[in-house]
Amino acid sequence: MAILSATDIVKYFTEPVRFQVLRGISLSVEKGEFVSIVGKSGCGKSTLLYVLSTLDTDYEGTLVIADTLLTGRDQEFLARFRGEHIGFIFQFHFLLQEFTILDNVMLPALKLGKEPQATIHTRAMDLLHRMGIAEYAHRPAKQLSGGQQQRAAIARALINQPTMVIGDEPTGNLDSENTAIVLDLLEAICHEMGQTVVIVTHDTEVAARSDRILTMADGKIVGEHRTR
Amino acid sequence: MKSSWIVYARIVGTHLRSRRRQTILSALGVTLGIAFYVAMVSFMTGVNRFLEDIMLSATPHVRLYNDVVLDSVSIAERWFGRSATVLLHHPKAAQRSRAIRNAPEIIAALRRQQDVVGVSPRVTAQMYYTQGITEIPGTLVGVDLIEENKLFALSSKVTEGTLQAVLTTDDGIMIGGGLADKLNVRVGDRIPITLPSGVRRSMTIAAVMRFGIAQIDNAQAYTTLKTVQRLLGKDRRYITDIYIKLRDRNQAPQLAALFARLYDCTAEDWQTFNATILVSFTIRNILTYAVSISMLTVAGFGIYNILTMMILEKLKDIAILKAMGFSPGDIRAIVLGQSLAIGIAGGAVGMMLGFLMSLGISRVPFRNEFLPGMEYLPVDFSPIHYIVAITFALAAAAVAGIFPARRAARIDPVAILRG
Ligand SMILES: Nc1ncnc2c1ncn2[C@@H]1O[C@H](COP(=O)(O)OP(=O)(O)O)[C@@H](O)[C@H]1O
Ligand SMILES: [Mg+2]
Predict the structure, then answer these.
(1) Does residue A37 belong to any structural domain of this protein?
(2) By CB count within 10 A, which of A41, A212, B38, B190 is most buried?
(3) What is the distance in angstroms between the Cα of B329 and the nearest Cα belonging to chain A?
(4) CB-ligand 1 contact for A210 (6 Å cutoff)
């Protein structure tokens, strides 16, 4: 059963000149699947992820996630949907710099407001432990290194146990040891929790750990490769 | 929903703390506006109250008298009918008595009225005070001194002599302070007076009074009802004015109309015969509000500035929040929350500062012989000024926050997160 299905996604940029970044992308991802997207820099991977994560609404085609049609929905609806179903890991670790690491991780869950604060706190601390940064929980984000912030951002993406985790080079800032930790965790949530992961990566070893590799070139998906 | 507010508050607090100096500065703008408003309006209201009290200490809520009217036209109309054209040359007021008809009965009836707390009859007579060859026009007022004292705290206006002495001295009068200065007389002196009828009498000054109202202090002298009635050659039923104090002075216009109908005489409420003073109150209030609103407008711009700056600085944060599930409405609430937080904090400190300033003003000694009873500048400490002040602060903050809040809500997260 497809948890995500995108049909004929087309997107143009008009600045500085009009050009087509995404040229009719269709893709379907199964529940519990771990998919990675590879391709040359500038081929439109990040652009595609912003569309899939509902942040970018300026596209043609249709997007359905968890049996919900997301194309043409208003911002209020999409915000609520993102909070509940999508955990996003940005290419550059984007934390709220003035907030503590723990607050950063807890905030999406507090906003969603589905569980008591104590439950959220426990799960946040558990995620920080797994990411190996629990000792920095009460430090403001700006005092941490790039790699540490990246790991906190991954913990934040997982806090609401989202239907889908979407990551734009989530391991780009990490050394091999931490990359392994993150991959173990992503693999675990797919295969044990039934969550779905779609990431963009440059790292062939990272791609090799996923269930399926999609290759993009020039705004199109040009290749597909199952690893198992 | 409730958990949303806790999250908003958390974000508002953290963002404001990260911009501590500007936050404090913009809150200070609100503080000054509010403090100034509270101090000004408390002082102005204090002054207005004080003057109103002085005014009402000497004037009744309703005054009954017999107006000298030209009603000859209506008489002619009654005779010839309304349709006829009546031309009257030089109509003159009929020689009617100034006395109120059936005054003792009216007084008795008024005293039984629920809304009336006191009734004081008086007889006034125009006359001249003579001093050497100068003659100063003035009014001799015959009053029931005991009743009058109850209603208008007469003894508190006595600056020399005593009220008791007026009652016990033969032909004793209590003379207005300004008049006493002009005539250069003091308690114990005798002063000749002349009535329009030609009657002359030598009166004894038993007391000097100061109301702080020029019309009284510079022209009037009080004595007993009987003394004036005797001077005019009238009996005890001769009463020219009835002064009435009401339980609720705001009811005066309605009750005046009622009394005029019931007792067939002219009735005037205090609002009417003090209209000019009431206008000056209004003007003072308008001034206070105008100055305070301008100050709050400046404060509002301060808030607007810091919010605009903060949004530009926190573009990334706003984009992240949106990506994490915060809707445009949430972002709007957060920015508006920041604005209101500045308004509330600045307003609260402003109210405290305003209170201290009011307290300071109320401690400034201010004595003036024309304003008896005033020792310090008058200040009104009603909570209503504080309620209005904080409402103003919140309104200024809301107006200042609304546009930055809407701008923040419209930010496109993708454009910012791409870097
Ligand atoms: N806001 C934008 N306006 C115009 N062109 C853009 C914008 N963002 C990205 N691009 C261009 O779109 C193309 C695809 O970008 P992107 O999706 O970031 O590629 P990738 O993530 O695969 O490196 C690039 O050529 C980039 O220069
Ligand atoms: Mg990219």
Answers:
(1) yes
(2) B38
(3) 7
(4) no
Note whether residue A15 is domain-resident. no
What is the rounded average pLDDT of the residues A95-101? 94
ipTM above 0.90, yes or no: yes
Shortest Cα distance from B350 to chain A (angstroms)?
Answer: 29
Instruction: Single out the residue of A131, A169, A196 nearest to residue A45, CA to CA.
Output: A169
For residue A50, give the ligand 1 atom closest to its CA. 17
CB–CB contact B328 A92 (8 Å): no
| B187-222 pLDDT per residue, tens | 999 999 999 888 889 999 999 998 888 888 999 999
- Contact across the interface for A88 and B324, Cβ inside 8 Å: yes
Q: Look at B326 and A50 and tell me if their CB atoms are within 8 Å.
A: no
CATH code of A107's domain: 3.40.50.300
Domain that holds residue A170: 31-58+72-223
Q: Is the CB of A171 under 6 A from ligand 1?
A: no
Torsion angle, alpha carbons of B52, B54, B60, B66, to 10 = -100
What would the pLDDT profile of A195-220 be if each residue is shown by its tens digit?
Answer: 999 999 999 999 999 999 999 999 99
Cβ–Cβ below 8 Å for B323 and A98? no
Predicted TM-score (pTM) above 0.80: no
Number of domains in chain A: 1
Rounded to the nearest angstrom, the distance between the alpha carbon of A74 and the centre of ligand 2 is 26
| CB-based contact B115:B247 (threshold 8 Å) | yes
**In a domain? residue A6:** no
State the nearest Cα–Cα gap between A191 and chain B, in angstroms.
24
In a domain, A3, yes or no: no
Q: Does residue A47 have its Cβ closer than 6 Å to ligand 1? A: yes
